[in-house]
Amino acid sequence: MAKITSRSPLAPDAFPALPVIKGVRFATAAAGVRYAGRTDVMLAHLAPGSTVAGVFTRSATRSANVLDCQAKIALEPEAGDGAAILVNSGNSNAFTGRAGDASVQALCEAVSTAMDLPPSRVFTSSTGVIGEPLPHERIVAKVADLVAGLDEENIAGAANAITTTDTFPKGASAEIEIDGQTVRIAGIAKGSGMIAPDMATMLVYVFTDAAIAKDDLQALVSGINERSFNCITVDSDTSTSDTLLMGATGASGVRVAKSDTAFATALESVFLDLAHQVVKDGEGATKFVTVQVTGAASDNDARTHAIAIANSPLVKTAIAGEDPNWGRIVMAIGKSGAAADRDLLSIRFGDVLVAEKGWVSPEYREEMGAAVMKEPEITVAVDLGLGDGAATVWTCDLTHGYISINADYRS
């Protein structure tokens, strides 16, 4: 699982300048979880009174960390409790049986003791190789240094510490005015492969200085997740470790609710930005692809069709080869299992009408589609002509690079 040295061609020019979120501090360390000398652990501390919400993978083989976080998110914290998030890369602590549970317990106890927090307010995540015992003692040995090094301006370091096959750290932010005061949101994420979320994507941590009740925060996170992280796919594989945690510190003094449209819109922009960055860093990716399906019998049908298109190896390899093979779109729609009528179907590549009413458009020429396929960002739009159902999914192409990375993942 060596770090990938070549940066994705779809990567942003640089890590964004994220605002300081008062009430959150970060620290990183090189614990040697898998490789010596690599920064591979991140600790975030949330001030007393913070609320925490989360969504997690529904994988039947989810990690010990995920199971522990799920149990803790359901608890009602004591008034005034702070919280901590401890994350390691290099080892996912998944499919490790009772040893995995013991590792989580050891990590939570170490952080709890060092930070004077209830163990129920320590959340852990692990990402990396599956099926190998987590050398948690290496992380425990760094806890004191992590606590001593906590800094509200180290979110960029935290973003870098949680990466595995990522070619760039991922961050996004938003600032809005509510009742004349500034509210800030900032988030980081990791993810590059094993991306077909059934909740969120790999690891995502978002923070705000707004004050939000726990139930309202959970409702916001769950709802926006469905329109962002749950709408991306790189390779159709759902991780055992998928975790999205969000903390609200209340440090701004501005109280918001789930019904606050301005805050929800800003939060969704951060979720979408991070989700899109994950796709743009898809292992071996050279194209960012938006799949839009309209005219379906229902929104669920539209999503089913969109996922079928986005996950099709034949569609994805055609896009990698810049081949406007619209027949593969037709194939993916036909196999999805959702309602479709060949003679009502239309397909567009970007603004180019490729097919309509069950046949190639009379105005379409191959060179028109080929020109669209040369772009780094491509939209595939399908209208089924059956109803008002709609969905949008984001994916990337499938290249030889993906095979090279994953054929050599554990070395």
Describe the protein.
Helix 8 (299-311) packs across helix 10 (327-335). The mean pLDDT is 93. Helices cover 31% and strands 25% of the residues. The protein has twelve helices and 15 strands. The chain has helices spanning 64-73, 97-115, 136-140, 143-148, 155-161, 214-226, 261-280, 299-311, 313-320, 327-335, 366-373, 400-407, and strands at residues 24-29, 41-46, 51-56, 83-91, 122-129, 170-178, 181-190, 203-208, 243-248, 288-296, 346-349, 352-356, 359-360, 377-383, 389-396. Strand 12 and strand 13 form a beta hairpin. The protein is globular, with a radius of gyration of 22 Å. With 411 residues, the protein is an alpha+beta fold. Strands 13-12-11-14-10-15 form a six-stranded mixed beta sheet. A five-stranded mixed beta sheet has the order 3-9-8-7-6, with helices on both faces. It has a four-stranded mixed beta sheet with strand order 1-2-4-5, sandwiched between helices.
